[in-house]
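fyi for ur records
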Amino acid sequence: MSNHTGDTVLISEVGPRDGLQSIKTIMPTAFKLKWISALYDAGVREIEVGSFVPSKLLPQLADTAEVVAHALQHPGLTVMALVPNLRGAISAFEAGVHKITLPVSASVAHSLANVRKTPEEMIEEAKRIVAYRDANFPAISIEAGISTAFGCTLQGKVEEDDVIRLSVMAAEAGIDDIGLSDTTGYANPGQVRRLFRRLFDEVGDKAGAAHMHNTRGLGIANCLAAFEEGVRTFDSSQGGLGGCPYAPGASGNVVTEDLVFMFEAMNVKTHINYEKLMQARVALQEGLPNEPIYGMTPEAGLPKGFIQ
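which gave:
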């Protein structure tokens, strides 16, 4: 392995959206605001704070506009929201987000279940969103997460060619960043290396984040595989909160605390202070006192003599 000392990665915290939407408990708004501020104090500089979808579909995220307004008060924080369609994008733009994420599924079955559109129809929707952005909010960035990129609980195998073809279509539609998401926790490090290598070959510097799930215990290994292929942005969720309500059996995201520990132990800078990240974990647990939260490093503690 090459020496990565001095490299920097961006940890994009998705717990307030991906985590909270996946549990039945609704975290009270005041606790969400406190949690986001605690994450910011720890050095987290990109947070997906919610999703602009009808509140009857995701009551857990009904307060997203209010959460965005709070997050925008933190200088240097990139405030993100997930949007499934143009209507949601317009709401997000008007709320002042810096970046939106579009879920573009490589699996037809998952795409229909999640956004009620085929992957190709979702690309057409992305074109409308890009056109609206270009005309009205040119400073806002648009990223696509290619979900079920490594396999699907509904369809099974997802062809790698389909993933790459969709990524190229997203790039041609004017999307700024295209990431790959292991929505179902099916990925393995060999597959992650192969797909990200092809993604870089096809879309170059538009290749975006790795969004891994720890369903089969390979989340961190898959992040390392993506890092070795040149990925420098990683989605993770504090306490491993969340999964995907439309992908049965897809347990939680990679644990932010474990990911930060891995990179810092490798002398790769995250600019996140581990001790303060643990304080944010306390804020999370206060807001969800009855929900289990996870993490190997938080339970084991930092190794003796570990200096960040």
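The chain is about 45% helix and 15% strand. thats all i got for now
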